[in-house]
Amino acid sequence: MQTLYQKALLFAAEKHTEAKQLLTGSQLPYVVHLSNVAMEVLVASQHSENLDINFAIQIALLHDTIEDTATTFNDIEAHFNKEIAEAVLALTKNENLEKNIRMTDSLTRIKKLKKEVAAVKLADRITNLQTPPKQWDNEKIKNYHKEALQILETLSGTNEYLENRLQAKIEEYKHFF
C-alpha cells in the first residue's frame, strides 16, 4: 500500500502544484486536503469490512485531479488504470451541466461504482466541513450544508463509519449559520 500511496500522492501533488492550487482560504498546498481525505479513508478501513484500501487510497489522493487541474481521464488511466480513472471521473462534477444538478449527477455516477468511491466522497465532505472560507456568505454556507445532507442521504448504506462521521460533521457545521 505504501508504494501505491506514494505514487498517487506524488502524481496529485505535482498536478495541483502545476495548477497553483492552494487549500481554500489558506496559503497551504492543496496536498493537505488530499492527505486529510486519505487519512479519513485509512481510518475508515479499520472500521469497515471488505474495504479495498489499495483502491480507495489511490482515488482519495487523486479525487480532485480531473476537476481542479489539467489532468485528463486518459492521464490517470495511463499512470494508474481504467478503474481508478473511472472512479476519479465519477468524483468529478461535470462542468457542462447546470450548477444545480452537478452534485446529483456525480452522486449518481458514484453509486454505480464500487463502494470505495462512495467512501472517498463521504471522506471528502467530512474533510471539507471545516470553518467556511471568510469569503463565503451565509447562503453559500447553508447551501454547502444542504449539499452535505444530500451526499449523506444518497450514499447511505455504503460505509457506516464514514456516514456517522459525516453526520456528526453536518451537525457541527450548523453553528456557522
Automatic annotation (TrEMBL):
Pfam families the record matches: HD_4
InterPro entries the record matches: MESH1 (IPR052194)
Protein name in the entry: HD domain-containing protein
Species per Swiss-Prot/TrEMBL record: Flavobacterium jumunjinense
UniProt xrefs under PANTHER family: GUANOSINE-3',5'-BIS(DIPHOSPHATE) 3'-PYROPHOSPHOHYDROLASE MESH1 (PTHR46246:SF1)
Domain of life: Bacteria
